[in-house]
Design a protein that fits this description.
The chain is 38% helix and 17% strand. The chain is of the alpha+beta class. The chain has one domain: Winged helix-like DNA-binding domain superfamily/Winged helix DNA-binding domain (Arc Repressor Mutant, subunit A, Orthogonal Bundle), CATH 1.10.10.10. Strands 1, 2, 3, 4, 7, 8 and 9 form a seven-stranded antiparallel beta sheet that branches. The longest helix has 19 residues.
C-alpha cells in the first residue's frame, strides 16, 4: 500500500503528493519542497532503516527520470531537506550521514504513515485517522486526540496549492500568446 502522508516524530507531516512539510501542532511553517528534495525524503522514509548510498539516491531521484546531475546537486538537496525539516517544526535533524556509505534516518525516529478511512456518505463526516506505525525502533509515542483533531481541522482548511513555478509558467505562456496575436 502506498501512503501519501507520513507523520515524522509527531512534529511534522510530509505530504508526498503535494511535496509539502506541515507542522503537526503549529510550531513551524508549511514548506513546499522541490521534486528531487521530496523524492529524497520519500526514499529515506521508505528505506525502513537501511543506509541509502549516494549512487542509489542519484539513480532513484534523478536517473530514473532521465536526468543526470552532479554530486554537488545531490548534496545541496540533502542540505535543503535538512533545513526544510527543521523550519517546518522538527526539533532535531533526523538525517544521519554514514561516512563513506550514505544516509539513513536517525535511530529512534518515528515515521507514522497516515491511512485515511473512507467517509461515511450518510452523515458526510470525516472519520478519524487510522494509523499504521512504521518505526526505526519499535517504540512510538501515541498521537493524542487533540493533535489528531487539530490535524483534521487544518486539513479541511487547506486548499489545493499549485507550485509557484507552475503558476509563473502559465502566466508567461498566456502573455506570450497574447503578444503573438498582436504582432
Amino acid at each position: 500500500m502506498a501512503f501519501s502522508e507520513f507523520i515524522i516524530n509527531n512534529e511534522v507531516i510530509f505530504d508526498v503528493n503535494m511535496s509539502e512539510l506541515r507542522p503537526v501542532n503549529g510550531n513551524g511553517e508549511s514548506i513546499n519542497l522541490n521534486g528531487p528534495t521530496a523524492r529524497c525524503l520519500q526514499l529515506l522514509i521508505e528505506s525502513n532503516g537501511r543506509i541509502i548510498s549516494r549512487e542509489e539516491f542519484l539513480e532513484s531521484v534523478w536517473k530514473t527520470r532521465g536526468v543526470v546531475v552532479a554530486q554537488n546537486t545531490f548534496y545541496q538537496n540533502i542540505s535543503l531537506l535538512r533545513k526544510s525539516l527543521l523550519k517546518a517544526g522538527l526539533s532535531q535533524d533526523i538525517i544521519v550521514t554514514v561516512r563513506q556509505r550514505g544516509f539513513i534516518l536517525a535511530t529512534g525516529s518515528s515515521i507514522v504513515p497516515v491511512v485515511k478511512a473512507e467517509e461515511e456518505v450518510s452523515t458526510c463526516q470525516i472519520t478519524p485517522l487510522i494509523k499504521k506505525v512504521v518505526t526505526i525502533e519499535d517504540s512510538v509515542p501515541e498521537i493524542n486526540n487533540n493533535e489528531r483533531q487539530n490535524y483534521i481541522e487544518n486539513k479541511r482548511d487547506r486548499a489545493f496549492k499549485l507550485p509557484m513555478w507552475f503558476i509563473l509558467m502559465f502566466v508567461i505562456m498566456a502573455v506570450t500568446n497574447i503578444l503573438s496575436l498582436l504582432y
